[in-house]
Amino acid sequence: MKKIFLGVFVLLMAINVSGQEINWMTFEEAIALQKKTPKKIMVDMYTVWCGPCKMLDRDTFKNEDVAKYVNEHYYAVKFNAEGNEEVNFKGEVFTNPQYDPAKAKRRNAPHQLSRYFSIRSYPTILFLDEEANFITPVVGYKTPQQLEVFLTIFKDDKYKEIKTQEAFNKYYETFKPTFSKTK
User: Using an 8 Å Cβ cutoff, are 85 and 111 in contact?
Assistant: First the structure.
């Protein structure tokens, strides 16, 4: 009994020390889950050589408020936009035929799925609706508070009401972030 208690205690301490993390999954896993329980999908399109992508991982995606919100309201996909993963999406198979394994740790050919979504810079966070239809990309590094704006706009379908850049700017200026600035 003491061993069980000690094991549970150690596990709980490890969870508290490490904080909450985003439950990353593949496109296929997110689509399958979406069919059972509809949620929007957030996709982190990153590359292994991208400095701002690493900052996004370290400073934003490790933020406990971000992780909790994303896990509750989205299916989160992490996708190497220059990797060699085969992806089945919307009835098509996407690969990276020009992928060079010798360049695995540096710039490589863009994945077909990156081209499908017209990704031109990294990081880019894609948002897909509950049927995996493309909503929009959010380009560049975002702090937890900057990302919170987009997470709430898409979760609550407010983006459907914001039709112009002027309307978005007004929304952005009046938005009151609640996510903490610390990890």
Answer: yes
Provide the pLDDT confidence category of residue 19 given band limits of 50, 70 and 90: low
- For domain 19-174, give the fold: Glutaredoxin (3.40.30)
Please indicate, yes or no, whether the overall pTM of this predicted structure exceeds 0.70: yes
For residue 82, the one-letter residue type is E
Q: How far apart are CA 1 and CA 142, in angstroms?
A: 47
Q: What residue segments make up the domains of the chain, in order of their start? A: 19-174
Q: What is the mean pLDDT of residues 78-86?
A: 96
Would the CA dihedral through 23, 27, 29, 30 be positive or negative?
A: positive
Pairwise CA distance, residues 44 & 73, whole Å: 15
Task: Give SS3 for 119.
Answer: coil
